[in-house]
Amino acid sequence: MPVTVRRLLSAVLRTPKLISYPNPIFLIPHPFSSSPTQNHRQTQTPTPPPPESYHPIPTRTRTRTPIEKQFETWVQTLKPGFSPTQAVSALRAQSDPDLALDIFRWTAQQRGYKHTHETYLAMIKILIDGRRYGHTETLVEEVLAGACEMNVPLYNSVIRFCCGRKLLFNRAFDAYKKMLKSSDCKPNLETYTLLLNSLLRRFNKLNVCHVYLRSVRSLTKQMKASGVIPDTFVLNMIIKAYSKCLEVDEAIRVFREMGLYGCEPNAYSYGYVAKGLCEKGRVGQGFGFYKEMRGKELVPSGSTFMIVICSLAMERRFDDAVEVVRDMLGCEMSPDFLTYKTVLEGLCRDGKGDEAFTLLEEFRGRDGLMGGKMYRTLLNELHFISREEID
């Protein structure tokens, strides 16, 4: 019997027993309760279920954006072994330039495929149209570093982009130098047009003009040496560059050579030469080019009109100056305040005050843009100068 009791006791002691300890906060007696034990039985919280009864909450998958879906669609469309022509078609079919760039980068990572000048040219145009200039600059650097074989349209596209960005001006000439060194991608007329136009946009001050004029001379010599035949637009830019720097003899020489290239001088050709001659002080020659231009029924620009008028007036050739003013008004253009003042005050100081007042009334009647303020200011100036001459 004792042995049996000892075995039962040892079995009971070996059996694990869960003991739950009450929360100490429930042992604090409530002021309105009769006994702590009773209050504990009423407020005791249920024991939480064991961890085995919990089930994990299913994770929700992220919804793909329309751009991601469109990207996956085009990726599936481009089957293995696709060609650069198919890649170009996929790029041009995208309305979003960022999506096109993603496809461009994805295709470059595919085995057995390499981008060509066609794909780079298409991607650069898409990014420029989408105003993604930072990405465009990255592709330009890749191209200049030799990412693909180049051709003339891709070179010109790179030069056009660099010429339009102030900080990339020198990179445009880097691309041009690579074209000169290449055997099958020599610069063409479009290349020289882009570079000359970019240079002329920097012809603001006389001292700066002479700096860039060296580049204009160099480009002109290289263009002739390579056998590229210039057109009227390119020749006009060269004439303008010489005229801006007051190298009028060089400007006239290029003007006379236009016929050798089968080009006919237009109003801009005559205007650049006439302005350069007048600013150089050779007013008679400048006025001669003006009359030759008008004889061909070519209409000068407003700036050409006003420079010729002021130059003639300062040379005391008032009859010719007034003739040009009337011609300008007949072409439905209006001289500015300084042009009127130069002619009319010059007449007054030359002892022709009555003629100046008469011309002012004539100009007021013909010039619809001469406001009352300009008229009164000119009239007061003429009265003031007339009194000075009398005194």
UniProtKB/TrEMBL annotation:
Q: Does the keyword RNA-binding apply?
A: no
Where are the compositionally biased (Low complexity) regions? Answer: 36-45
> What PROSITE patterns does the database record attribute to this sequence?
PPR (PS51375)
Q: Which GO terms describe its molecular function?
A: mRNA binding
| InterPro entries with a match to the protein in the record | PPR_rpt, TPR-like_helical_dom_sf
Q: Locate the transmembrane regions by residue number.
A: none
Q: Where is this region: Disordered?
A: 30-62
Going by the UniProt record, its keywords in alphabetical order are: Repeat
Q: NCBIfam families annotated for this entry?
A: PPR
UniProt similarity note: Belongs to the PPR family. P subfamily.
Q: What is the name of this protein?
A: Pentatricopeptide repeat-containing protein
What organism does this protein naturally occur in? Ficus carica
